[in-house]
Fold this sequence. Notes:
Elements: E1 3-8, E2 24-27, E3 34-45, E4 49-60, E5 64-72, E6 77-80, H1 85-99, E7 125-127, E8 130-137, H2 143-153, H3 163-174, E9 179-187, E10 192-194, E11 197-202, E12 206-208, E13 219-228, E14 244-245, E15 250-252, H4 254-258, H5 262-267, E16 274-284, E17 292-294
Parallel strand pairs: 1-8, 3-13, 7-10
Antiparallel strand pairs: 2-5, 3-4, 4-10, 4-11, 5-9, 6-11, 8-9, 12-17, 13-16, 14-16, 15-16
Amino acid sequence: MKRFILILGLLVLITKPSVYADRGSIPFIPHVKIFEPTQRAMIAWNGKEEILLLSTDLRASEPTKILEVIPLPSEPDVKKGDVEIFKKATALINRKLREGIGHTLTKGRSDAINRPPAGEVTFHKKIGAHDISVTHVLEKDGFIEWVEKYLKEAGVENPKIPEGLEQVIEEYLKEEFGWFVFDVVELDESLKTNDAIQYRFKTHFLFYPVKITRTEKGFTSIDLLVLTPGLLSNFPGISIEDVKLRHEPVSITSNELRSLNEEMDDLLGNREDMKLRIWRITGDLSSFENDLIVR
């Protein structure tokens, strides 16, 4: 996987029509439609730093490359992750639930205690990520020109940037979200599973980007494997009522987490009672006014 670090002063990030709930995307062929029926992520957060592991199932209405972009609150370290972690973590949760080891939920969420196991994770033919770059964005003027130039050099005729996304990016910049990750992948009509990419970055809140999709249409469903030292109840972004528990949270040990991801275990301090659960967020893309922010 090729990685570049670009520091761009006085620039802005703008994305285009087909946008996912975790990132924006610009098809190299403008009229091509991009479909993402499944989004999966695993988040480990210790109160100061987060590891975010992402993978998606993708297809296009015809063969094309797409430029994906994800906003982050600080400069990330980016590397290839293990897509199998989603299947392994879900299997661990289901085993814990069958054994009745799950702990009681926080007040107000006890209705989920007797829910069934989290199900299974399935994958399709895997595709690799290409040309990953991390970009520092300081100010909006000039980046539309940069994006259009990039797309023209890639063969896109008359690329257009939707006006509505300018407001979204301005909001990110005002909220001091100055870092964006670019990723180029190649798609066709068959459904494929994108290789997992791991982002590690400093943040004083648990974060998952959603509102970048606000100018788009269509329904989306997002499953998040969330791992923290304890349970969380402060949701200043997306309301806690809109973040649904798939099952009762379970406690896992350092050895169990280490078998999934050693870096996440180290991030959380090798604890013996870490909390693992699956959150689901659903809704129309145009309805997301906030990102998932939890403390």
